[in-house]
Amino acid sequence: MNNKLEIFKKKLIYRAGYRGTKEMDILLSSFVNKYINDFEDSLLAELEKFLDFEDEIILNFYNFNIVEKKIDQNKVSKIFKKFRI
């Protein structure tokens, strides 16, 4: 693997693990750590966009299926919705 890809993956892992609330840190870091090595480049780009959503939007989508800011149009969000710790 090239160095740029590894650095990008580490950035995504860091962003998933330091969200602001412990619950989101655990949920997103578990998800990212499980799938990051399976995602191809296009899905890694989608993951980066997914992590740009605010915690409240991600949590409402995950727990209550409330769709805000077109989170449901992200490919990674569909995988995340099925994810269980």
User: What is the 3D form?
Assistant: globular
Q: Biggest β-sheet: count, sense, barrel?
A: none
C-alpha termini separation: 28 Å
**Mean pLDDT value:** 94
DSSP summary, beta strand count: 0
Instruction: Please write the CATH class name.
Output: Mainly Alpha
How much helicity do the residues have? 55-70%
Rg estimate, integer Å: 12 Å
Q: What is the CATH T-level topology?
A: DNA polymerase, domain 1
Characterization of the model:
With 85 residues, the chain is mainly alpha-helical. It has a single domain (3-82), classed as DNA polymerase, domain 1, CATH 1.10.150. It is built from five helices and no strands. The protein has helices at 3-17, 22-35, 41-51, 55-64, 75-82. Helix 1 runs antiparallel to helix 2 and helix 1 runs parallel beside helix 3 (41-51). It starts with a helix and ends with a helix. The mean pLDDT is 94.
Please render the helix and strand layout as text.
Blueprint: H1 3-17, H2 22-35, H3 41-51, H4 55-64, H5 75-82
List keywords for this structure.
85 residues, mainly alpha, DNA polymerase, domain 1
Quick structural summary:
The chain is 68% helix and 0% strand. The chain is built from five helices and no strands. It is mainly α.
